[in-house]
Design a protein that fits this description.
heterodimer; A: 386 residues; alpha+beta; Butyryl-Coa Dehydrogenase, subunit A, domain 1; Butyryl-CoA Dehydrogenase, subunit A, domain 2; Butyryl-CoA Dehydrogenase, subunit A, domain 3; four-stranded mixed β-sheet; four-stranded antiparallel β-sheet; 10 helices; globular; B: 260 residues; alpha/beta; Rossmann fold; nine-stranded mixed β-sheet; 6 helices; 11 strands
Amino acid sequence: MAEQRSYRLSTEQIELRDAVATLARERIAPRAAEVDRTAEFPWDNTKLLASQDILALPFPEEYGGLGADLLTVCLAIEALSSACATTGLILAVHELASLPIVTKGTKEQRDQWLPDLAAGKSLISFAITESGAGSDAGSIAMRATRDGDDYVLDGAKRFITHGSVAGLVVVFAVSDPAAKRHRNLSCFVVETNRPGFSIGRLEHKMGIRGSPTAELLFDGVRIPATNRIGAEGEGFAIAMSTFERSRPGIAAQAVGIAQGALEFAAHYAKERVQFGKPIAEQQMVQALLADMDASTEAARQLLYAACAAIDSGDGDGARWAAVCKLVAGDAAMRVTTDAVQVLGGYGYIEDFPVERMMRDAKITQLYEGTQQIQRLVVARSLLARS
Amino acid sequence: MRIVVLVKPVPDTTGQERLGPDLRVDRVGVPAVVNANDEYALEAALKLVEAAGEGEVTLLAMAPAGAPETLRKALAMGAHRAVLVTDPALGGSDTLTTVRVLGAALRRLEYDLVLAGADTSDGGGGVVAAGIAVTLGLPYLSYAAKIEPSADRVVVHRLSAVGYDELEAGLPALVVATQALGEPRYPSLKGIMAARSKEILTWSLTDLELGDAPVGGAVTTTAVVETHAPPARAATRVVRGPAGGAAAEVVAFLAERRLI
């Protein structure tokens, strides 16, 4: 039976979390509605996250990072996301896309790329998904053909967060077509200013509308073989290993979205007067709010426990990552839907933020592995333990 | 460029300020933050040191023993160290004690400039900085919208009702900051982490040369004899919503009452 790991937030974690929460409340929340309405990537928020060292959180100190553990990074993502899911995602993707370089990169690769990432001078994307390969990541078709000291990349990636604003893309491509499935992929870092790289379509989305979701086109993009992360054929394993530290980040985004919706709905219920008193005094409204609070808190505690387990090297990190993302995503959808319900008709109009939060929440059930994929991982782990 | 910034922990104004049973401000039950005007002074000091490319900013506070936690945020903004004068006898002190104690503390420090906020959100006296300047014989340059130090002098633009006056004095000098100097920075995360290891010197009254006259809460020159709450306001109506509709509602409200 897996050892029980409990967490306790240190004073420093609380200070960091509160500093991010203050920034989120004072500088990011006021623009959240506009970011959603214009669907423009918030470069100003990105610069703010960089100048406040928030983008430095996930990187080792030797590269100018803060060397924060997964729980601390998730605290920051959660705090940002309760104000603006798009902005929370900036930190979440910065962390997750860097993971292959941080965890599997050679010293030369880490020296080359991590300092600018830690300083927030450059953004990074994670490109595995293709039009024909979503949940079925093993069937990607993009090719990486070895040519002397280089690789040449041909193909297209789809639904890549930050793909159009990143300076670096971590790409997974078939380097050995003859190899077995799951052994045929390699992982590469591509600087987006290389010839042959271009942006295709940008998606118009239900939510996180300020976050650019791009199609990336690789037409004979030549990269040095030193841009390959890990060994040839190790790509799939690298992708799978990053999920352990990337899925909690999305769970944190979901918990943050839920918390933002919960707080707004509770505040609204105290002010909205119907039948001569605030609706917060009506038991049906209290029941809604109570269930929203319970869902959010449960998702939060599971997330923190998962982070502690993963940080301490728990052997079943994949299960922890999947179960916290599963619970948090469903909680966010339920809580934001109920937040709209608490506001009634006002919840349905743009003047109030809860409809945006509900639209934002949906993606947490879809990306970084659909809820159905998370369930497969959880079941597999459970049955192996039984 | 050595700058001392006077800072005071005050009750967080976003919370409920309370008076204790002794009619003094309840500093125990309410979380403390650095006085907002002092943050503007600190921001100005940090900018001056950054522009000079060298120098240090020292915080100086007279406060209860729990103050170090409150001073951490100011240290996280970039101050290099803090000096805290704390002593049980100082509880309930008046302005005069504060002037004498901070003046005595400054005599133990070396500085080119002392920066202070215009007043505090709890006491609201606005005279401590002037009292210190008089006590120490420092030039007093108040309500600064601009501060331009050079090797041995400082030029200050002092806000006035019609614009500003340009003042000049030799160093060391005391300058009172205004919000016109610029918004205080948010502490960066690296700043927050570095603050934990910055030095906070703690001095008690016995560490200061105060002369023979007693100081502290026992010898205040003022006393609070009574307090009253302001009369309750009539029910207020809050107009929310997008600007167009809200404006129409406000106009209708005023027109109904024949105010416009």
